[in-house]
Amino acid sequence: MIHQHILAAPRPGLSEAEFQDYWRFVHALKFARKIPQIRKYKVNSKIDIPGQIRKIEYSGIAEIWLDNEEAQAASIKTPEFLDGALHDEPNWAASWQTIGLDTDAHETMGDDPSDGEFPEYKIMLFHKKKRDMSVENFQKLYLNDYVKMIQAANIPNLVRILNCLSKERLYEGGGAPPFDAVTHLSANSMLELKSMVASPELQAFLDPEHGGLSEWWGVVTMTVRSEWVLGPEARPYPLN
Questions:
Q1: pLDDT tens digit sequence for 49-75
Q2: To 10 degrees, the CA torsion angle through 216, 134, 110, 159?
Q3: 169 burial class (0-12, 13-18, 19+ CB within 10 angstroms)?
Q4: Ramachandran bin of 169, using left for φ above 0, alpha for ψ from -120 to 50, beta for the remaining angles
Q5: Can you list the alpha helix ranges (DSSP code H) found in the chain?
Q6: DSSP result, 69-93
Q7: How far apart are CA 207 and CA 205, in angstroms?
Q8: CA dihedral (205, 210, 214, 217) positive or negative
Q9: Predicted confidence band at 116 (pLDDT cuts at 50, 70, 90)?
């Protein structure tokens, strides 16, 4: 399954509050969730939590689950996408700034604490590998050594670790995705997330050179409130 991350920013003239309101309660509900190939869909709204060394300058991240590349290709040909989500995009998002990243997700610890009514609170770390490190070596170190370091760090209030690696096809033909991995570290509440981010145990992982995967500029973060639009159970496809 493809676990897609889509980073979005407000269109010019739209305030942060207006962006969040339109994205969560109009675009997501009225347009995006109607694309039939989307199996699950989450809206991650930025929340301002102190202690982040390098915050990525976006306002939210959509998480979308699709079965495979064929379903993904079909999704952007549907009227729900072309006449719905895509047509609506200029109303709320700066489309020229949008970043999409297709990943393979690895559940390392715990389960998603959210459900249809209760949100997930998490910090997301976006990793860019060292320039002289091979993709194969980065992925091996990330899924083994780096993950073990997180588990051994005893980060307070940490209830879930999700590790997402960029799809290997994004590197074909000398290509390079915008990020090489995304780490999700979740807590049970905003208060617990604030405490987790402030802790020295987590602060160590906000240093891009911690773990030997990235150079000094290679890790940026966003703290979010994560809410299901479709889920947590995957919607059947094709739709009945």
A1: 999 999 999 999 999 999 999 999 999
A2: 0
A3: exposed
A4: alpha
A5: 16-22, 69-75, 79, 86-88, 135-141, 147-152, 190-198, 200-203
A6: HHHHHHHTTSHIIIIIIHHHGGGTB
A7: 5
A8: positive
A9: confident
